[in-house]
Amino acid sequence: MSGTDSPYEGFTAEERAAMKEHARELKTAARRTSRADKAAEAERDVLSKIAEMGDSDRIMAERVHAVVTATAPALAPKLWYGMPAYALDGKIVCFFQSAAKFKARYATLGFNDPARLDEGAMWATGFALTEVTPEVEARIAALVERAVN
After folding, report:
1. Which residues, at least 6 apart from 83, have a Cβ–Cβ distance to it below 8 Å?
2. Hey, is 51 helix, strand or coil?
3. In the Cβ-directed half-sphere of 23, how many Cα atoms lie within 13 Å?
4. Could you tell me where the beta strands, DSSP code E, fall in 16-117?
5. What is the pTM of this model?
6. Do residues 101 and 14 touch, judged by C-beta distance below 8 A?
7. What letter does residue 104 receive in the DSSP assignment?
8. Distance from chain centroid for Cα 62
9. CA Rg, the chain, in Å?
10. Which parts of the chain sit beneath pLDDT 50?
């Protein structure tokens, strides 16, 4: 099979861009000095990334950020593959992925392995977001609280 006949198409341009962004995030974090400086800079990076988003994604990301930081102050905001994310002891617990990030129909609130959302043999770790209403905020708060407790 020649290289052009292969069914493997590799990473999309969006996926490659996200990986490059993550490499830049790691380099930037390594250059920071004190732990407090690192935390403050990381939160500024998250807020800056949110500010760059288009209207719909930005509004949802702002609300998600507010809910997560109010519900679980132990979670540290940081960028993760160019997305606002929230870590506990350096491990990403949850993240917001804008719809524009991978040209998707909806934004996503996702949870990684450290999130304690276990519910039997199967549970959701990603939630589609099209709008953040007061009801959605309450559900996000409940999920985040459960994820860290």
Report:
1. 18, 49, 95, 96, 97, 98, 101
2. helix
3. 6
4. 76-80, 83-88, 91-97, 107-111
5. 0.81
6. yes
7. -
8. 12
9. 17
10. 1
Tokens 């609280």 belong to 145
> Strand locations in the chain, DSSP E?
76-80, 83-88, 91-97, 107-111, 126-129
Q: How far apart are CA 69 and CA 47, in angstroms?
A: 12
pLDDT 10s digits, 10-39: 999 999 999 999 988 888 777 766 888 889
Residue 5, pLDDT score: 61
Residue carrying the six token digits 């490659």: 16
d(CA 102, CA 119): 29
- The DSSP output letter for 99 is T
CA 74 to chain centre: 16
Distances (CA, A) of 5 to 1, 80, 92, 111, 141: 6, 34, 38, 37, 48
Q: Which amino acid is at 49?
A: K
